[in-house]
Design goal:
The longest helix is centred in the first third of the chain and has 13 residues, at 35-47. Strands 1, 2, 3, 4, 9, 13, 14 and 15 form an eight-stranded mixed β-sheet that branches. The chain is α/β, with parallel strands linked by helices and 334 residues long. The chain has 13 helices and 15 strands. A hairpin with a 2-residue loop joins strand 10 (236-239) and strand 11. Helix 2 (35-47) crosses helix 3 (65-77) and helix 8 (195-207) crosses helix 10. It has one domain: Rossmann fold. The chain starts with a helix and ends with a strand.
């Protein structure tokens, strides 16, 4: 998964082909409508109730659309915060970074790019947030077998064909991760374990001197993700908006992802000094922060077909079964 997504030359996120939107492989909430970024800006303003300058760090900023929408809303609706704002983007993909630079020329004085190591040496005071970042971190897959665990590996057959194989776990951390949650897995049940997310939390401890860590992603509690009826886990791939059976197809040309275990983020986050502020469905957060009222205020009898299409897109952020239905918003504080 690491190689397929992040290889310098051939990894999915490092190639030039557009990944997000109608011409890509999937949609994100931030690409549905600018209102998502405006509501997020409102949330930032409500959290940052101090006169201190605000530093915002976005992890994995994608096309840059969300950053542009957040900055636009802060400039237009929260001018005091905007005038004392620094917006940092952490982006490992050169192709994505180029898209971000092209999209945000209007905010050159407010933004800069950096990596996590720089943040660890110069911790920020403000808000570090991510939108569909953790789900793209490489995962391990384990299954229960005879009251023990096996790990799934990718092997080569006949020198050029990839297949899955079950072997001994690569690290004892996998067993300790499972044991931490006190759940008994059924014989043959497969679950995903995101050790990289735990390592990321450790880095965020160093990167955030004071403020909030906000994680927006699709996933759930461990009790829901590891329920017996999900015997094959949540690993999945997408290509041209179609669900693909195997991540071994079109390696480097399709997305590979797994649902986020938010219980792990909360519990391991506590180990690293992060206090739980809130954990909610994205739909509820958007509604509470005025998404419906924001869209209603834009209604105009003379709206064009394109305007109506935009508002129908926003509907997908709040209706049952829409984009937000399986998304969660986790806010932690240091």
């Amino acid at each position: 998964m690491q190689a397929a997504l992040y290889d310098t030359d051939l990894g999915y996120y490092n190639t030039e082909r557009l990944k997000i939107g109608a011409q890509g492989d999937y949609y994100t909430s931030s690409n549905v409508h600018p209102a998502f970024g405006a509501v997020l800006a409102q949330a930032f303003a409500e959290l940052w109730v101090t006169d201190e300058p605000l530093e915002i760090v976005e992890m994995g900023a994608g096309t840059g659309q969300l950053a542009k929408d957040v900055l636009t809303a802060l400039r237009d609706e929260h001018r005091t915060i905007f005038d004392n704002l620094s917006y940092l983007l952490v982006e490992t993909s050169p192709a994505m970074r180029t898209r971000q630079m092209e999209k945000m020329t209007a905010f050159d004085e407010r933004i800069r790019w950096c990596d996590v190591e720089q943040l660890e040496h110069e911790p920020v005071r403000g808000i570090i947030f991510s939108n569909e970042f953790v789900d793209a971190l490489p995962i391990h897959r384990v299954r229960c077998s005879n009251h023990s665990f096996e790990e799934q590996y990718v092997i080569t057959v006949d020198h050029d064909r990839l297949e899955f194989a079950w072997r001994e776990p690569s690290t004892k951390d996998l067993g300790e991760y499972v044991e931490r949650f006190g759940l008994t897995l059924g014989e043959g049940q497969i679950v995903e374990i995101n050790l990289d997310a735990v390592g990321w939390l450790a880095k965020m401890k160093q990167a955030l001197a004071h403020g909030f860590l906000i994680t927006i992603d699709y996933g759930d509690t461990v009790q829901e993700l590891w329920t017996p009826h999900r015997r094959t886990g949540t690993l999945r791939s997408f290509h041209r908006h179609r669900l693909v059976d195997s991540p071994l197809e079109r390696v480097g040309e399709q997305d590979i992802t797994a649902s986020v275990n938010f219980t792990a983020l909360i519990e391991y986050g506590s180990d690293y000094g992060f206090e739980l502020v809130s954990f909610e469905r994205q739909t509820r957060v958007l509604t509470r922060l005025g998404l419906i009222e924001r869209i209603a205020s834009q209604l105009d009898p003379s709206d064009s077909i394109e305007d109506l299409k935009e508002r129908l897109a926003v509907k997908n952020l709040i209706v049952p079964g829409g984009v937000s239905d399986s998304f969660r918003v986790l806010i932690q504080r240091r």
